Amino acid sequence: MNKSKQYAPATQRNREPILEVLLRVVPPSGNILELASGTGEHCIFFAPAFSPRQWIPSDPNPIARDSIEAWRQESLIKNIQSPLNINAEKLSWGLEEQQLNITTIVNINMIHISAWTACLGLMEGAKRILPSGGILYLYGPYKQGGKHTAPSNESFDQSLRSQNPEWGVRNLEDVIKVAEDKGLMFQEKVEMPANNLSVIFQKQ
Ligand SMILES: C[S@@+](CC[C@H](N)C(=O)[O-])C[C@H]1O[C@@H](n2cnc3c(N)ncnc32)[C@H](O)[C@@H]1O
């Protein structure tokens, strides 16, 4: 067994409903950049559905990148690239000058487990990188109208904030506002299992 491989049990539960949405909203051509890929279990499940288009995973955490690379190598899937070191907050993601033909950015379960500045950086980066018509796909729990949508999300929010006061379940309207300020227009939200949402934006 490869010791670098990390496991996040939630990925086994949410990967099929997420893939169902991705298959519907991802544009018909271009490559997919995943921010905050975590263990890498998602990308080995999603990438084959978009082959031969490239799935480009990334994470700022070196332990996560080692895990993504271990899952990638074991999978033998050809259209997953080696993980990039991208911190959403940074003013450059190190790929802006490259011709990577990225038409989709996927970001799952990050904006509540990072400072609000990561969400701001994500929107700024999506604005820099996506072409007109490109898609930003977000997944996670959200408050709506300032209110939690389920008691489980409220206790999750409290536990996040107790770990780091800068973390916490975001208000959907706030996320839409910062996205639209960057020209990423809200397209739709999709109710997902366990009180999560898929939230889809399209670059103007
Ligand atoms: C809860 S994990 C989610 C991982 C994976 N997407 C999943 O759903 O299993 C949060 C991930 O966000 C990453 N992360 C935290 N802050 C970040 C930032 N500023 N930019 C990019 N990724 C970040 C962490 O390294 C971690 O891998």
Describe the structure.
The structure is a single chain. The protein has 204 residues and is of the alpha/beta class. The protein has a single domain, classed as Vaccinia Virus protein VP39 (Rossmann fold, 3-Layer(aba) Sandwich). The chain is 36% helix and 20% strand. The protein has helices at residues 9-25, 41-46, 62-75, 116-129, 151-163, 172-181; strands at 31-35, 55-56, 102-108, 135-140, 142-143, 170-171, 184-192, 196-203. The strands form two sheets. The chain has a six-stranded mixed beta sheet, with helices on both faces. It has a two-stranded parallel ribbon with strand order 5-6. The model has no long low-confidence stretch (mean pLDDT 97). The site of S-adenosylmethionine has 21 residues, from loops.
Topology diagram in text:
Layout: H1 9-25, E1 31-35, H2 41-46, E2 55-56, H3 62-75, E3 102-108, H4 116-129, E4 135-140, E5 142-143, H5 151-163, E6 170-171, H6 172-181, E7 184-192, E8 196-203
Parallel strand pairs: 1-2, 1-3, 3-4, 5-6
Antiparallel strand pairs: 4-8, 7-8
The structure holds S-adenosylmethionine.
The site of S-adenosylmethionine (SAM) has 21 residues, from loops.
Short description:
The protein has 204 residues and is of the alpha/beta class. The protein is built from 6 helices and 8 strands, in the order αβαβαβαββαβαββ. It has helices at residues 9-25, 41-46, 62-75, 116-129, 151-163, 172-181; strands at residues 31-35, 55-56, 102-108, 135-140, 142-143, 170-171, 184-192, 196-203.
